[in-house]
Each structure stands twice: as C-alpha cells, then as structure tokens.
C-alpha cells in the first residue's frame, strides 16, 4: 500500500437533481457530463444498460467494477468510439448524439488509454504539440511556404507545450524521444498530451496500470493538481482501490454493464452489493 504525501480531506457530496450527487463546490454549477439511460448492444449482447451518471464541473469521479463489467465500453460511448444504441449523453448541457470522436474532443472530452498510445519515435514536445492541433490556426499553404502565420502559431504551440511540461516537471525531457522514457514518465506524458486539447472532462483509463507504489502516489498528487490547476473534471477507471478511495469524490460501480451502486468512497466501501460483486457471495456456513 502506497503512502500518500499529504492527508486528503474528504469532500462533502450533496444531492442534486435526478438523485445524483456532486461535490458541494459544484452544486450551484451545471454538470459537465450527464448520461441518461445510456446503453449499447452488440448483436444480441447487451454490453451496457441503463447507465445514468452526473459529474460535477470539478469532480474527481471513479468508475469501478470487476473485469468485464463494461467500464471501458462506457468510455468508448462517451468519446463516440461507439455510438450508443439508446440513451443520451449531455456534455456541458449539449446533446452529443451523431457526433464523431473528433467532434467530442473539440467539444471538451480528452482521454488516455489502458495501453499507452504515444508516438514513440517523436520527441516529448512534439507529442504534446499534437494535442494542441485544435488550437493551431494556419492553412496548408502557410505550412508549405512557412508564412509569418506559421511561425507565429508554431511559437505559440512551443510555448504552450513547454508550459504544460513544466507543470509536470518534464520540461527537461522536451527533446527526448517519447519511447525512451521510463514507464511512469510515458504515462505522465500521455496525460499532458490529453490536457493540451484543453478539455473540460479528462477520462483516464487505468492510469496506474503497471506503476509501482511511488509512481502511483505521484499520480494521485498529479490528478488532484490537474483538477485544482485546470478547474476541470476527471473521471478514471482504476483497479487500484487505494488510489480510487484516496482521491475520488463520487464513485460509480458497474457490474455486467449495469450500475449497482453510486456514492462517496465511504458509502461504496461498505456497500454489501459492491462487496459481493468483487468477492462473490459469502458462504453462510463460513465461520458458523
């Protein structure tokens, strides 16, 4: 079990409309994300069904559940890798139906993946600059002929990339090849690249996978830093329960594609339905 660098104060979660809860600091703000009766079928198989969730504007939310519960499928629905069979997704109050993955990214959702997806042969800085593509504004001819607009935009992109890298103590690695970085630094770079798209909601799919305890503790601090510095919401899928219970404010539990519990870490930790989903039913004869 990794030790946290600083004690974390439990966030008060308050009820809002539709029986949802959000951090008290977000109660007077519109939610960044709302899912209503979301579901998807693959042939005759229902992978996700009746998924309802609200995320506060600066909430750190957790999506947990046993392997195969449908967690990554939910992320794929939110980012339109998959189009829902039914239900509604509202991002900043706007219906995302018929939007593409690129549209969703520009609208404010960025994500990382279970398996690192960096451009390994490019530099650290160039990987971050690729995340800035939504904000670079010069045409093809400007790039071909290196017109003044091109140099202005490239200078702006360089400055922004270095600013983001500096926040996560990676500025000295800007010229390094991304694939040469240690595992933990590659994970960090993937998050920096996602932040470069200027999201209002950052989705992290198993960000602590493969990390040692000290890297996980650093990741926890960085996620809180992201929330506080950028004033955005973060939603993560994670199997490391120390991480989930340590930083998540609201937690949603999936099992067989359906929500079985929602609540604060304390509520989820003591929920018998959640315990059963993870550990199975306890034999009544045990301990008798």
Topology:
Layout: E1 13-15, E2 21-23, E3 33-42, E4 45-55, E5 60-64, H1 71-78, E6 86-91, E7 94-95, H2 101-107, E8 109-111, H3 124-131, H4 140-144, H5 148-167, H6 183-195, E9 201-205, H7 213-230, E10 233-237, H8 241-247, E11 250-255, E12 258-263, H9 265-269, H10 272-279
Helix pairs in contact: 3-5, 3-6
Please tell me about this protein's structure.
By secondary structure, this protein is of the alpha/beta class. It has two domains: 10-108 and 199-279, Rossmann fold, CATH 3.40.50; 116-198, no CATH class. The chain has helices at 71-78, 101-107, 124-131, 140-144, 148-167, 183-195, 213-230, 241-247, 265-269, 272-279; strands spanning 13-15, 21-23, 33-42, 45-55, 60-64, 86-91, 94-95, 109-111, 201-205, 233-237, 250-255, 258-263. It has a six-stranded mixed sheet, sandwiched between helices. Strands 4-3-6-7 form a four-stranded antiparallel sheet, with helices on one face. It has a two-stranded antiparallel sheet with strand order 1-2. Strand 9, helix 7 and strand 10 form a beta-alpha-beta unit. Helix 3 (124-131) packs across helix 5 (148-167) and helix 3 (124-131) packs parallel to helix 6 (183-195). Residues 284-288 have low confidence and may be disordered.
Q: What is the rounded distance between the termini?
A: 32 Å
Helical content class: 25-40%
Order of helices and strands: EEEEEHEEHEHHHHEHEHEEHH
Give me the Rg, rounded.
Answer: 20 Å
Rounded mean pLDDT is 88
The oligomeric state of the chains shown is single chain
